[in-house]
Fold these 4 entries.
Entry 1:
Amino acid sequence: MKKHIQLPIIYTALACCLGSQLAQSQESEEVEEVIVWGRSLQLLGISSSASQGIVGYSDFSTRPLSRVAELVEVVPGMIATQHSGPGKANQYFLRGINLDHGSDFSTYFDGMPVNFRTHAHAQGYMDLNFIIPEIIERVDFQKGPYFADTGDFSLAGSNSMKTYDTLDKNFTEITFGSEDEIRLVTANSFQLANGSVLAAFEHHQSNGHFDLDQDVRKYNGLLKYTGDIANIPSRITFSAYDSQWISTNQVPQRAVDSGLISRFGFIDPDLGGESHRYSLTGNFEINDWDLNLYASSYYMNLINNPTYFLNNPADGDEFEQEDERLLFGGSLSKRSESEIFGLPATQTVGIDIRYDDVNELNLFNTIGGRRASSIREDEAEEFSAGLFAESQISLTDKLRATLGVRVDLYDFEVDALREGNSGSDQDSLWQPNIGLAYRVNENVELYLNYGHGFHSNDVRAAVNTIDLVTAEPTEAQDVLVQGKGSEIGFRYDTLNGFDIAIVAFELRIDSELVFVGDAGTTEPSDPTSRGGVEINSFWEISENWVFDFSATKTNGYFRGLPSNADSITDAHEKVLAAGLTHVGNNGLTASLRVRHFSDAALTKDEAAQKDGSTLVNAGMSYEFNNWEIGVDVLNLLDVENDDIAYFFESQLTSETTGVEDIHFHPSNPRHIRLLLKYRF
């Protein structure tokens, strides 16, 4: 599963910025196979903060992944878990923020934004199930609101995933796991006319570890062309995703303690969903301009029931969320070298636009998985345009300054079935950013950063006049919510296989207003403040051994609340991750990874808490001729951890009133997978 590159192929990337492409020199006749680690690429003198990084395929190919969304855990301090079924977007955590299904962390796939705004289930919904990890060449990441080229949902950070243009070797692999798990992946690249084509397909099915079979059926396809079109260097990518699944929700602790259900049991057997996403992206180099265009068709249907019989003791609280939309957009940017007041400078200017046409944005009451009544049915149109400019100026041979600004305009319209909840409006926001980087010597660089960012809220919150639950008048909310961040950082690189970055950061968000799709209402939070320290290191111990380590300690609280009732719920203060990888000369590869996150408060007064979690995953593979066999063991120690926990009120059939309780979704028990792979 490791990526092999032949010497003297040299990475000349990062000559201008982190987002530039990795170039390759011509191969010589006599070559030697080596592993090139993305995390060992030189960032000193290039990056504008200590929180930026690059991860190549070699860095994560040996990682045993229990779910595709764990691919974002290559971003130091990032956690991906799940509170429901396998087909929906995952639950994410970063820097003491419960990102829910995305909210303040954005992902781009070959230039296309993955997060959905004004979504039926969650704002910033970031579903990564359409991605095939084996064809991701690299992941570029950055944390904090210090970058003018990233806009919505990027307060905590962002990452950009780029697919391969061509493969070193074509392959077909099949994985067998416990609980009837089967995964088939095949990928092939070939020359076509003046370019190349990459084709990939994935099928995944599993019944899962829960008492209720999850019956996961997922299909992914990708077709990519790289070459000249009308003498324009181009990359055209088409991806297709289709999935359906049955799920268990988070379950009440009291039901497990009483013996009513097991840890992997369920209350409602009718939960689950289906989803598809068909996308087309194009990236073009036109003279000195980079043009990105994308279009996507998306659908999701999800049946959920977190409260069971609390609101409807007779028929239950089951509900269905439906989202169907078309998404169009693109970006145009230019990077150029110039002088400002006689000082060398690299300037970037650009614009990005996006249009969401949501023709189904619905919430229904259901009984036994069938629609019983309508709670709300909406249509929405949302248009945004962002203008940005950024200059990196060399003040001296050692000191660089980055100055940037971004302006975003939002225009939206909501057509609601419920009278009084329709309307249209506009909103705008500008965000400055500034950074300093000082090169102490060839091995050490210091960074100072400050910037503004934002996330958008569900546009229904801006026009709603009637609360659909209470039928009382409600106050419209701002669509764009601002945050301010700062950090001071340090990066040390031996330039010979060892680097470490240490960052102290702060993030203040005006309001973490979230549209609650489960209830069809909005719940604004108080302003929040978070501060912490982060360490990220990578060490090529030898030719065959690699060690990586990351740790984050965060302290967060609600501003304006009493000190005994200001804890931010579901926010993990401590996150640790480490991995040891062995790549032998005899074809043997082994990986051992540990991930830990600490206890978390489930109420503002910390009266209820979620226990921390520690997971150990291990993998081993052996290559011979063109074959590879491997085994992964997930949750090696078979510990009883919880992926997520909440504290809220629910009611079971045996109860006459609601009960406040911890509701949790367990991590998978020990899980073994066997891999057979053929390269050709």
Entry 2:
Amino acid sequence: MNHNQSPDHNRLSSRILSKTFPELQSGELLQNIFDSDHQLLRKILSIPPLIIWAVDRHGIVTLSEGGGLNHLGFLPGEWVGKSIFKEYADDPELIEIFRRTLNGEELQRRRTAGALVFDVEYSPFFDGQGHVDGFLSVAIDITEKVASQEELRLSEERFSKIFQFNPIAMCITEIDTGVFIEVNEKFLTALQCNREYILGKSAFDIGFWPSKESRREMIEKVQKEGTARELYFDFIIPNGTRLCTMLSAVQIYFRGETFLLSCVKDVTREQSALEELEKLNENLEARVASRTAELEHAHAILNEEYTKRNRLYNALQQTEAKWRSLVTNAPDTILTLDQAGCILFINHQIEAVNMDDIIGTSIFSYMNQSHIHKAREKLQKVFDSGKTQLMETEGLNTEGKKTLYSCRISAMVSEEKIIAAMVIATDITQQKQAEQELVRRRAELAHLSRLSTMGELAAELSHELNQPLAAINNYTNGCIRRIQSGTTTLDNLIEPLEEMSRQAQRASETIKRLRRHVQKSEVEQKILDINAVIQNSIALLEHEIQRNAVTLQMELSPGPLRIIGDAIQIEQVLVNLLLNAFEAMSEQPPEERKVLIQSDQEQTGNLMISVTDSGIGLKKGQEKSIFETFYTTKQKGLGVGLAISQTIVEAHGGKLTPRRNKQGASFILTFPVAHGDRISVI
């Protein structure tokens, strides 16, 4: 610009200033600006990222100013005198904008120039007769704004993916009202409802929170400390079920507002298991109190491990960097794998192994050789079907020690394409050890019960042994007398000698059955023929059946019925049920003392055994109490037989059910049928 500006140019500049900066409406102020050689105007227009063009009615540029011109490689005033119709002849869209503006339209457009993005306003100005005298173009460089918006969009997209595919149940709610803004699939699964039912409603609308007071206390904790971690609440899901949950929450900035991000862990099963354990511990006999204390300690360790594994992280943020930090600090080992099993990411570093040395290596190099084939199959299924796979395997922990892991393999999806697999590996070493300890404790308790039962039978079993021993003694004395008299031959001695052999074999089998029943041993898991188990149990009680004058009838399946279990423990259950039946019929006349044993396969596929007696039967309401520890209707006994029998049956995956009959009672055992060709010899 020079000092000798024309009046028309001054009027144009005044219009540009008043258009761009409407606060400058004073004529005196504008006149002072032009009287100072337009230095203020030039300084104002030189501020990036502004670009201003003035074009006359013929399309000739009369003004080109603004610091944004430098971004395009032009100098202020460089375009003055050029025709826009010639310079942009190859851009029909822009030519059309020029023509429409010169026809009196005000237009707004977003334009790009290489990597730059501009918001442009085209405004016509008029002469004193109301005719279009040209137009003013004001362009603002919004490249950084657009880039920021795109970065924000990508960040929220990454947040959304991590949120939706997270194995922890999560929800985003309004802080004040509790209205659900977003929930992930794990949260919908936990509540057993669909997304449409949840979104837009508050937690109180669906009865999720037990009270407004409890939520307010949680919110106050978040606002005071920044986060609320490991708070236990009882929540009611839409179907009416009450869940015991562990909740953690943190404030996040999402979609331009502040919301509450909550993580919910269902610990109902763990809580129920703990309560059941406490109940069992209260009812155990004094002689196993010390062992029970050890079992409680094992369960305490297991519960502590569950708590550590599900401990929520200190803070959740909307950016990828903080989400990565969250994953890195997780107690579980988290990996991402490609289809070939190559490690793309791992959150924990193995001791003495650099993290960079782990990335890019094969996950199979850290696994037990016997598990590699199965792991490859599971990984391929995830990439083929997208369905989550589960498996247990042995690997290395952060200290480089071999550890047993429970692995959850899930698909990571982007734009409807599986790009990787996420593996969440949970250390279950202590859990498995606790389970093994529980099995050992149960076997010990069952052994004690067998000793108690055999103590009651000892007198009767000794009588059963005396019979063959007395027969052997009589036959021996008879043979000696015959030989001494000299009136017999060797042929006459064969028959009594054979009978002596049979009686000795009978005594031997009785002793074997007794030793086998009371012997302490580990729980066996074999395929059994249940009919053979029934026969062995009856053989153990042969003398007891005779002594009580019981008529025993069996209706057994013609074919073998197979289960997987421990023969000694099943025999213990049957012996206990038969002894209870004999006692229930003790007041009946001998001709009415009848026991029926049946075995068959139900239509459901389960194996069924029933023991039915003709005794005094069960009173109404007694079906549940008879299984309580120390409950008994006998003059003798501790009242633990049926309780232990129920424990043994349930440990085999079965069920023990009592039934009241018109006369007597029935006890029905059901077991899952085992499939296989080999039957263990009992």
Entry 3:
Amino acid sequence: MEEKYLTPEEKKYMLTAFRKLLAHTHDVTERGDIAKVRHIINEGIHQNHYRRDRYGINPTVHNLSTALALCEMISPDRNMIIAILLFNLCKTEFIPEEELIKEWGDDIAKLIRGLLKVSTLYSRQAAVESDNFRKLLLTFAEDIRVIIIMIIDRLVLMRAINHHPNEKMVHDVAYEANYLYAPLAHRLGLYAIKSELEDMSLKYTNRETYTEIARKLNETKTSRDAYIAEFIRPIKEKLGATNLKFEVKGRTKSIYSIWNKLRKQKNDIEHIYDLFAIRIIIDSEPANEKSDCWLAYSIITDLYRPNPSRLKDWLSIPKSNGYESLHITVYGPDQRWVEVQIRTKRMDLIAEKGLAAHWRYKGIKSEGNLDVWMNNVRDILETAETGPMELMKNMKMDIYDKEVFVFTPKGDLYKLPYGASVLDFAFNIHSNLGIKCTGGKVNGKNERLNYKLKSGDTVEILTSTTQVPKLDWLNFVVTSKARNKIRQTVHEMNNRSATLGKELVERRFKNRKIELQEPTIMKVIKKMGYKTVTDFYYAVGDERLDINDIIAEYEAVERKAAESAEIRSAEEFQLVKEEDDNTDDVLVIGDNIKGINYRLAKCCNPIFGDDVFGFISAEGVIKVHRCDCPNAANIKEKYPYRVITTRWSGKLGQQFGATLRIIGHDDIGIVTNITSIINKEKDVTLRSISINSNDNIFQGFLIVGVNDTTTLNNLIKKLKTVKGVKDVQRSK
């Protein structure tokens, strides 16, 4: 079997690779580790547990190359290397999980489970170019080491497919590497890997451009090297006169970055002057790092004129991926702009090998996105003396734990907030799907509407034409789209049912030849225990209220009114204040009010403590007005039967908006004094301010948030004491 599976060249490579791996891992592996892994691999080959992948690549060779690349480009780590080498045999179940844990321990088993989990993700039909795919990949890879392995694995694959005959396959791999893995490498500070991925991606997708740039760079190499030598000579002399230990390097920029510049500047390579950068690396003590770098800066800017607009200070505020450096652009010989990078040896190590060279786990928790998480990682950077990769064992990629990513049966990927239900998912796809949703099949199993989804779930929505939304659904949906659509649909259904109910009542009254008087029917509505007209007619339309009972009650109210209307002389009458019809029915506004649809009127903006009344609108909503509202007199005159007594009950635990009109002299600092007083008030917030000034007189409108009228009145008193303020009034 081995003879068929391995070519002579591959067998030769494996022997060499295992020797190199032994040399790299001598200090981090246990005795016999590599020999044991090699034996297991040979057993797997003999028992036909290896197959060439879809690219025709030998997975044994590929895994060995990945392990070596990890050692050379980042740092050797025992558990990561063993996980890489055993992954394929675990995938084919040649090594059962129990045996894996027994032989190699929980940590290696955890790493391999993460790799298996990610491999299942690729079996889905989700579009890799979706940003959700990137986030889901990070969610699946709970251990940062899994992501590092994936990046290295993709780098090795890109190196292997240079001459692959299937151009489309190569193009797809290159696109994925550039879209997904290069940005991930950048975020993790793996700049060398990022650059190589980008260069190879350009090479495979646009060979002509890549070859042309490479050719021109090669042609100008001699002159470029001579210029670099001329540029750094005086720098070395000046730096050498200090006590600084340093080295100076010249580096040509990557082909991909040059191509990017050519695209952005719409120029040719002959007119791109910053094709290279000078790097000054200082051997500095941790306490002196910043001062040494700025000393080098001052020396270089004394020699060459700097461009202040091109200064990039990542010493004071490092990048989110831990990158620290000082970048300046100076005017060098022959009137050419040259970029100079100043950093210490520690900073250079991080820049070359990424944060993986310095990570130490301290239980960092996510705060919502990768950049924040990486900032936290940056705060725990330490030296790599104790074996850097070992320090990352339990580093969790829980950065997207406030989101879930789920698939449709067709493989489309959707992002939802954490705690989202099957019903949220249905509304997210389409509102009509949500309205008719009865449940869903999650990973092939029937689940209810309120089932909480998890990342990686595949969900099929089940519907019924007879399903109607219910207000109870609001108890478990978390997305605003679902909540708004449920409320809207239920409200529309109620309004339709209320309209139908009103038509039924009017038709039945007409058939019985009873004249329907609005004041009388309002008394009937109240007597039958309904707060709003809409609720009453909705109960009729919903067949919860019998129209015959309504007619009987209506006639009883009319009889009572007729019986009390005795004919008396006008002289017997005494003018008295009319009793309020609503004394028995008072709307109490408080925190615990339920089942009543009311709003605070926009025309007068009542707040807690104001004298208020309620007005039942045509839609059945009770609008609460101040008694001194400009519209109050008109409302009470035209619609007295729709006015209900209203009072406050306790505090609502919220702030109310109140508008204040301020008039005064336009003195210097008056606005500052006004806002200062507001900011000092404990229970007052300033929401907006607008000031107009004319002929040294200013008029301003403030919108403030207050808890009650007492707080507002105290604020008005204090504002009137401000020098220059003539009057402060609450606007109606």
Entry 4:
Amino acid sequence: MSAPETSKPVEALSRDEADFEMRVLAAQLEKHDKLYHQKDTPEISDADYDALRRRNEALEEAFPDLIRPNSPSKRVGAAPAAGFSKVRHKRPMLSLSNAFSDEDVTDFVARIRRFLSLGEDAPVALVAEPKIDGLSASLRYVNGKFIQGATRGDGTEGEDITRNLQTIADIPKELPDGAPEIFEVRGEVFMGKAEFRALNERQTEAGKKIFANPRNAAAGSLRQLDPSITAERTLHFFAYSWGEVSEMPADTQTGFLEKLKEWGFVINPMTKLCDGSTTALEAYKAIGEARAGLDYDIDGVVYKVDRLDWQDRLGMVSRAPRWAIAHKFPAEQAETVLEGIDIQVGRTGALTPVARLTPITVGGVVVSNATLHNEDEINRKGVRIGDTVVIQRAGDVIPQVVRVIEDKRPADAVPYAFPDHCPVCGSEAVRPEGEVVRRCTGGLICAAQAVERLKHFVSRDAFDIEGLGAKQVEAFYEDGLIAQPGDIFRLKDRAEEISTREGWGEKSLTNLMAAIEERRKIGFDRLIYSLGIRQIGQATAKLLAANYGTLPALTDAMLEASDPESEAYANLINIDQIGKSVAGDLAAFFHEDHNRDVLSDLESELEIEIFERAVADDSPVAGKTVVFTGTLTTVSRGEAKAKAESLGAKVAGSVSKKTDFVVVGADAGSKARKAEELGLTILSEEEWLAMIGTTT
């Protein structure tokens, strides 16, 4: 693939011409990034490099629908070279749920009270701290010495950046006597605004490219293969949490932070202990008012439950803790013109309207398209092509249309007619009764769904095949190399063909084949999630894996569950957190012959590991099915379920002959009566707690 001719004005390009040029530019920029950042052997001048970047940005502004997830505009420098080894976190580095309003914060506190069975007015102390717009890092100390530092990565596995972190003055190299034998500190690496401006001045003077913002500058500095470059760029570190520790030095979040400060770590000075949601919201307002005057970027406030024993009891949901939440600052807004509405088809066939906008800068980012969610939202907001609209980046991430400025509406603007056929494959697009989304009925015959499902299949939380990202999936699909997931594991048979493609040298091809082979062994829960079944996220995939154990067992059960009167259907909706809607989507997926063919094909290529819950070695309820009914007094229903699941039990929502234990609280009704009729083991709350070894 040769370099594109860039003399032709962007506005004169056809969509196909733009697509071709963007692919070439992506390959060129990736090559030059690696030469510059990894090998320090640039082949072109900075001016020529910047020209390539500007051309790519102009194309993306003109053709926003062609922007790929791994676009050069979204990349800072290059991926780490082989010098960055992998580090597996002893405790996952979790993400946070978000709050966008005061009501979200009060609801957060209310959920905590309900989960812990506290009174409506019971005090819940929270620690409020600024949410730093930086990069999460983990520091591991053994016998008081800093031995390893790592990036967050995917939360489970990060990259070893110890040498670079050692250059940061805020990070103690040794801890005083009395520190735990194993002590893992977590926090945020960032660059100050003044230091960011000074760095860009030096970059400009040296004729080098400048950084877009302090976070990108910090990322580029922290991921240098040469730590001396990192040392030249002043970075800072705020400590705020922990990973693996042999002994906790405190019993509250505030006590932990005080201990960190005592041991030489830097704690954000605006961190405040609050006695509840009202005080927390006051802290949020104060931090927001101080935001502009801070020498570092923040994008919200994080609230954490102060008591560590409560944090332990609250635990986590999926990849986020129940005891913490990030309250984001309001999104910045701007006015622009809606030039058109494009329809995107997702992996589940959902037709999503996307507003095509006159490009406008919002919160420091150029926005040229925004979501309109669904056809009801278009009608509710009265959006018409040609309208002047207010847009915002919700949570500073996803652009969305807020409202129409009707006073500026042109005379020829007409209401938008939502399509009733798929724009990709032409199949009928139907809207089931009671739903807001219209979906393509083409299934896997629809190219949009097939490609999007393949992208999901290789995504980070699914198979996570290194070197096979969205761009490669699109290219391989378009050229007939892959059509369904199983084809990925047969790419070795077409290695010679791939080797002739632009950008695929011997090393990259070898690495891809090795990465594919590495993923032939996959956990059952990840396989379920990778299939992209509607409403089946990671948490639900784990529930299904835990309850059915193997793919053949799940397939047989779901085929039987297509009959709502069947025992299999009853067993399915009996799984806690799986209702009739989810059950319907599961049964529909497995009922389709082509989906089962895909599964059979995958099964022949893979080694699927049986899902195993992490449980205590001496758990008396591992593998048992438990139903809770009535009002519990010692713990809430939610906490009781979470505890049971942590011990390896399966929590069901209704009683059946397969139920092992029915735990009855006050005012137990029909479930208790049915348990008696079936002759099941019925336990009081006290008997249950005694069985699992809990006294409080």
